[in-house]
Design goal:
about 90 residues, two-stranded parallel sheet, globular, about 25% strand, single chain, two-stranded parallel ribbon, alpha/beta, about 30% helix
């Protein structure tokens, strides 16, 4: 059973469209306010982050808010996985 927690992704609220897409495929989804990420991180076992691109030194260019999610995961010792296409490697 997969359950996904999605931050809403203000100011463009991309999390809502992601949640709708996941729910249409039968995945249990909870949308949370961006400010609740740190509090909810204690309940997750893995964090998946999107990346606009991956730099040669391993750095990421990612959507706004991803840094806060990664820092919350680091504080709670939750593994973080960056997901992107191969064509985004710089």
């Amino acid at each position: 059973h997969i359950s996904v927690i999605v931050p809403e992704g203000a100011p463009h609220y991309g999390g809502h469209s992601l949640a709708k897409s996941l729910a249409s495929h039968g995945i249990s989804v909870t949308v949370i306010n961006d400010a609740a990420v740190f509090a909810i991180t204690a309940r997750v076992n893995k964090v998946l982050l999107p990346a606009h691109s991956v730099l040669a030194n391993g750095g990421l260019i990612a959507p706004s808010g991803c840094r806060n999610v990664a820092l919350a995961a680091k504080e709670r010792s939750v593994p973080v996985v960056a997901v992107t296409g191969l064509y985004k490697l710089c």
